[in-house]
Design a protein that fits this description.
- Helices cover 75% and strands 0% of the residues.
- The protein is globular, with a radius of gyration of 19 Å.
- The protein has a domain at 18-206.
- The termini are far apart.
- It is built from 13 helices and no strands.
- It is an all-alpha fold.
Length: 284
């Protein structure tokens, strides 16, 4: 069992890469004072647009750009209601998830008639996304948020927006920028899920990763080291799931699929009430 667990860890790291990208994007947005439940819909839309773009262009790189474009459209919709019209962010995010699920499901069924989702998709050759997600992007974002004036103001938007305004800066501009960063990362996450981890697009293929990302941000106390640790815990739980499947102990398959989510939920319950969120998180 131990050998099987160790052998499954590299696979778990790769499998949890889309989750980490979503976690990093949500962390930046929440540091700016927004809660974007719609990240689940952003990833789902990105997965679909990535596959469609890759099919039409026969290019995996353009597929990733298509995924980023899809996530950006959904992120812009969230920003329009949450920032421009000051709508409730929880309600807006939930509505966007439902919209994305319904719209992608409709498009998937319609385009199946043209077999666009049944054709082989271009595969990712050299996998550069994993080191980018686990090393390069966290370091770059940590430097941006904690070592630059822009990052200081962005974090102030989540703590005391009035101080940013008093300093002559725009809270809305910083929050739109944070949302743009999240859109790029969520687009990469959805595209990687569809073009590298899966053989194409399937309905609701994100399978709650966006909501798990929200939990990991809380678990990590809105810091990048905690985000990496939380995602690693999820990855280890996923590795345990793979090891249990390989051991053939007779545990029902659907129960094994729930292992990573149950572990994440238990950890989150254990720290609930002992973390301090950004002061202005979710406030319009």
């Amino acid at each position: 069992m131990t050998n099987q667990l160790l052998a499954a860890i590299p696979l778990a790291i790769v499998a949890s890469t889309p989750l980490l990208l979503a976690v990093l994007g949500e962390l930046v947005v929440e540091r700016a004072g927004m809660i974007n439940l719609g990240i689940e819909g952003m990833m789902l839309t990105a997965a679909m647009t990535a596959v469609i773009t890759a099919q039409l262009t026969h290019s995996v790189m353009l597929g990733f750009l298509g995924g980023i474009a899809g996530a950006t459209l959904v992120g812009a919709l969230f920003g329009l209601f949450a920032l421009r019209f000051a709508a409730d962010q929880i309600v807006t995010g939930t509505a966007i998830v439902l919209l994305a699920q319904g719209l992608t499901g409709f498009v998937y069924r319609e385009l199946q008639q043209n077999d666009i989702f049944n054709q082989p998709i271009p595969r990712l050759g050299i996998d550069v996304i994993v080191p980018l997600a686990w090393i390069v992007i966290p370091i770059a974002l940590a430097f941006l948020l904690w070592r630059t004036r822009f990052g200081l103001r962005l974090r102030a938007c989540g703590e005391l927006p009035a101080a940013v305004t008093a300093n002559g800066a725009s809270v809305a501009l910083h929050r739109w920028t944070a949302l743009a960063i999240e859109s790029v990362l969520a687009g990469l996450a959805g595209a990687y899920l569809a073009l590298a981890l899966s053989s194409g697009f399937a309905e609701n293929m994100v399978a709650g990763r966006g909501f798990i990302a929200l939990s990991i941000v809380i678990f990590g106390r809105w810091k990048f080291k905690g985000a990496l640790l939380g995602t690693a815990v999820f990855g280890i739980a996923a590795a345990a799931q793979y090891a249990l499947q390989a051991s053939g102990r007779g545990v029902p398959f659907h129960l094994l699929l729930a292992v990573p989510y149950v572990v994440t939920l238990l950890i989150l319950c254990g720290i609930a009430g002992r973390v301090r969120a950004p002061e202005s998180l979710g406030k319009t």
